[in-house]
């Protein structure tokens, strides 16, 4: 996903491979798990301490204002599910 516009709803996407999408999400997930584990080991729960231990996430947030609607700087997989319902006049 490159961007999400809210009014009107519009989703801009690009092409990437599956494993690149996994890597960018897993890197951010691993980073936050490590930061929380280190803070817990010190029995320190200050959010500022955890935020300092997130260089990948902080670099991303410096680059984009809203990572939920702006996909720049990482790869995010987008899935779409559709249910099609219609009246079957024959049955």
Provide an overview of this structure.
- By secondary structure, the chain is mainly alpha-helical.
- It has a domain of 46 residues.
- The chain is 43% helix and 9% strand.
- A two-stranded antiparallel sheet has the order 1-2.
- The radius of gyration is 19 Å and the shape is elongated.
- 2% of the residues are buried.
Give the averaged pLDDT, no decimals: 76
User: Strand-and-helix sequence, N→C?
Assistant: EEHHH
Q: What's the total number of strands?
A: 2
Our Rg estimate from Cα atoms comes to 19 Å
Which geometry do the CA atoms define? elongated
- β-strand amount: 5-15%
Alpha plus pi helix count: 3
Q: What ranges have pLDDT less than 50 throughout 5 or more consecutive residues? A: none
What level of helicity do the residues show? 40-55%
Strand order of the largest sheet: 1-2
Q: What structural category characterises the helix and strand content?
A: mainly alpha
First CA to last CA: what distance? 42 Å
Largest sheet: 2 strands, antiparallel
